[in-house]
Amino acid sequence: MLGPSGSGKSTLLNMIAGLDEPDEGTVTVDGVRVDRLGEAGSAKYRRATIGMVFQFFNLLDDLTVQDNVLLPAQLAGMPRAEAHERAFELLADLGIEQYRGTFPGRLSGGERQRVALARALMNRPPLILADEPTGALDRASAGSVVRLIRELNERGQTILLVTHDTGLAASCATRTIELVDGRLARDGAAVTR
Amino acid sequence: MTGGLGTIVRAGVGRRRVQTVVMGLTATLAVTASVLAAGLIVASEGPFDHAFNRKHGAHLSARFVSSQITSAQVSATARARQVTAAAGPYPLVSVKPTPVDTGGGLPPGIQLTDLTVVGRRPSGSVDDLTLTKGRWATKPGEIVMSAHNEPFVLGNTMRFPGVPGDPLFKVVGIARSAGETADAWVPRTTIPSLTASGSRPDYQMLYRFKKASTNAQLDADRTAVAALAPGKSLVGVQSWLKVRLAATRASATFAPFIVVFGILGLVMSILVVGIVVGGAVAAGTRRIGILKSLGFTPGQVVRAYLGQALIPGGAGILLGLVLGNLAAIPVMGDTAEVYGVGRAGIAPWVDALVAAVTLLAIATSAWAPARRAGNLRTVEAIAVGRTPSGDRGRVARRVLGRLPLPRPLTLGLATPFARPGRSATMAVAVAIGTIGATFGIGLALSLNDIQSGINLRSPGDVVVSDLTSPVNTDKVDAAITRQPGTGQWFNSAEADLGVAGLAGATTVISYQGDSSWASWQMIRGRWFHGAGEVVAASGFLHATGTRIGDDITLVNGSRSSTVKIVGEVLDVRQEGMLIVLDRTSIAALRPQMDPLSYQFDVRLKAGVNRDDYIQAVNRDLEPFGVSATRNSDKLSDTVVSMDALAGALTILLLCVAGLGVLNTAVLDTRERVHDLGVLKALGMSPRQTTAMIITSVGGVGLIAGVVGVPIGVALHGVVVPIMGRAAGTDIPAVDAAVYDLPLVIPLLLGGLVIATAGALLPAGWATRTRTAVALRTE
Question: Does the keyword field hold Cell inner membrane (chain B) (predicted)?
Answer without folding.
Answer: no
